[in-house]
Design brief:
The protein is an all-beta fold. The protein contains 1 helix and 47 strands. The strands form 8 sheets. Strands 38, 39, 40, 41, 42, 43, 44, 45, 46 and 47 form a 10-stranded mixed β-sheet that branches. The two termini are 42 Å apart. The N terminus is likely disordered.
Length: 565
């Protein structure tokens, strides 16, 4: 059964993103589609390290616009003019390989991207004057001839060389998170090509002082790509060899790799990302994912797979529940949705039809809980550009807000209550963090993103947000009272220490509802902090009640008030 949760008080410090420039994105001149359609869209997301830690301070670039990820690794590029067909976002952080994404978007869209930074580590040190073999995982290999490397200035290098490298297994579903850009290439005829992945290898070379080295003109380094057994029957005798072009986000055909036993063998003359791939005509497709009630599944984890095997596309639906991109025209595809525990709960064949049907998903049956609410600024207006961070035990979720509103289905995999906090990018303000209790909150109260507001009361009564800035709290004979004149909320609980308590139905008022108009009543209050007089008391309140006419009502929210006595 789905449970609807509200928000609790606590603290979490989130630092602001730093916009380096706010301007119109200048698209790359490469335009294989010939459309050159420019749309206004908001692009946000999160940059994390391979282990899932937030990549605070990661630098993001989208054309001539730059920004830094905040303490949670989150960024938001608000209302930019970008290319509808190919918008290229690039992220980097010292000590990691850069991460990037190439996406398609549409007018007014709110997109969410996840970028995963792969650590850049020395695999082996070699003598540049000698032949060398560098072994990677699963028998992937790099072969160096003697006297192959040059300095940046073009001189023959004869010292020790540090080899940075990694092979990405095309049969591993997680490997697609590390692929740069998208599996899109520019063909010999300058047409857009969708690339079927048979293995990726990244290689970089430096001297011991981290000065770059390069492969000499006319020299080559050998690469050996293992072919997983699940893909071996599909592997052609010769396959395209592609190199990722960091400047524009596309793969460029550079030559051919040859099948030798269970490996592809290739020779390269440059460092960077190299891909063995079969190319197919690429066409734009769009899928819309909705719940059974017709509402979109915003920021849902989505994968598109080729024939149920290797993943071609992995990411998130946008705010409208849409997935849009370039896909292979002549291959059968299927869509896969995963929950917060990484378990697939929906799988459907897309075939190779020109128009993908709307995907109707029973999200309430797949997830444990549903969260909805609003993010307000210091003036109690909806935050124009912000996000809510939902910290689950096993992973974090970022919910970009639109007009201050947010909603999502979620599952806490181990049953522990997550934390929730909100952040206003434009005003650089943050909310209190909130312990999201899972037992008694029927809906989400509003989050007040206002650093300077130490006292507040923020509740949602049915569908209305009620926010007060100066609630009063006091304790008398082990009875705790909280009163707020602006919202008309007053209640009391028998409490002399932090904990969960039943609210006294004989002393409860909210708006036009009071003890005299309430029939059935089940409201609870969690006291998180109960200070001495002059200190703060804070907590949450939520539950249900029925009026004398039989109408059901719900209330949920959080408070922080100065205890007067």
């Amino acid at each position: 059964m789905i449970r609807l949760f509200g928000l609790f008080a606590g603290t979490l410090l989130l630092f602001s993103s730093c916009r380096k420039d706010i301007d119109t994105f200048i698209p790359d001149p490469i335009d294989p589609t010939g459309s050159a359609l420019i749309v206004n869209a908001t692009i946000g997301g999160r940059v994390i390290m391979e282990g899932g830690q937030p990549a605070e301070g990661a630098e993001l670039r989208l054309g001539n616009i730059g920004e830094y990820a905040d303490a949670a690794g989150v960024f938001r590029l608000h209302e930019l003019n970008v290319s509808a067909d190919q918008t290229y976002l690039f992220a980097e952080l010292p000590g990691f390989y850069p991460a990037s994404r190439m996406i398609s978007t549409s007018e007014g869209s709110l997109e969410f991207l996840s970028l995963v930074l792969m650590p850049k580590e020395v695999i082996q040190e070699i003598d540049a004057t000698q032949e060398a073999v560098v072994e990677l995982s699963s028998d992937a290999r790099i072969d160096f001839m003697a006297n192959t490397l040059l300095t940046v200035g073009g001189d023959l290098y004869s010292g020790a060389a540090e080899v940075y490298a990694r092979w990405l297994n095309p049969a591993d579903p997680a490997s697609i998170e590390f692929l740069p850009g998208a599996l899109l290439g520019i063909g010999m005829d300058e047409s857009m090509r969708a690339l079927q992945d048979f293995g990726v290898m990244v290689i970089d070379l430096t001297d011991p002082q981290s000065e770059p080295l390069r492969i000499g003109l006319g020299k080559e380094v050998g690469l050996r790509f293992p072919i997983p057994s699940s893909l071996l029957t599909q592997a052609p005798a010769e396959i395209g060899l592609w190199r990722f072009q960091e400047v524009n986000g596309f793969w460029e055909r550079m030559g051919t790799a040859t099948l030798e036993n269970n490996y592809y063998r290739a020779e390269i003359g440059q460092t960077g990302y190299w891909l063995c791939a079969v190319d197919h005509p690429a066409v734009q497709r769009q899928a819309k994912i909705i719940d059974t009630d017709g509402s979109p599944l915003s920021f849902q984890s989505v994968s598109i797979r080729i024939g149920g095997a290797n993943r071609y596309w992995s990411g998130y639906s946008n705010f409208a529940g849409e997935v849009k991109g370039w896909f292979p025209q002549d291959l059968p595809l299927e869509i896969l949705l995963e929950d917060d525990c990484g378990e697939a709960f929906y799988q459907h064949s897309l075939g190779n039809a020109s128009n993908w049907p709307v995907q109707v998903v029973n999200a309430s049956g797949a997830y444990d809980s549903y969260l909805a609410g609003s993010l307000l600024d210091c003036e109690l207006e909806p935050v124009a550009s912000g996000y809510v961070l939902l910290q689950l035990p096993d992973r974090d979720r970022v919910l970009l807000t639109r007009d201050g509103q947010f909603s999502t289905f979620f599952t806490s995999c181990d049953g522990e209550p997550p934390l929730v906090s909100g952040f206003d990018f434009l005003q650089e303000e943050e909310s209190q963090s909130v312990l999201l209790e899972t037992d008694f909150m029927p809906s989400a109260g509003p989050l007040l993103s206002c650093d300077g507001q130490n006292e507040f009361l923020a509740f949602r009564l049915d569908s209305d947000d009620l926010v007060g800035k100066y609630p009063v709290g006091y304790q008398q004979d082990s009875i705790l009272y909280l009163v707020d004149d602006l919202t008309g909320l007053a209640f009391r609980v028998l409490a002399d220490q932090p904990g969960l308590y039943n609210v006294d139905p004989g002393e409860f008022v909210i708006g036009t509802h009071s003890t005299q108009t309430i029939d059935q009543f089940s409201v609870q209050c969690r006291i998180d902090h109960l200070g001495q007089p002059g200190d703060y008391l804070s907590g949450t309140l939520g539950g249900f009640f029925t009026d004398l006419q039989g109408n059901a009502h719900s209330i949920a929210g959080s408070f922080r008030a100065v205890r007067e006595f």
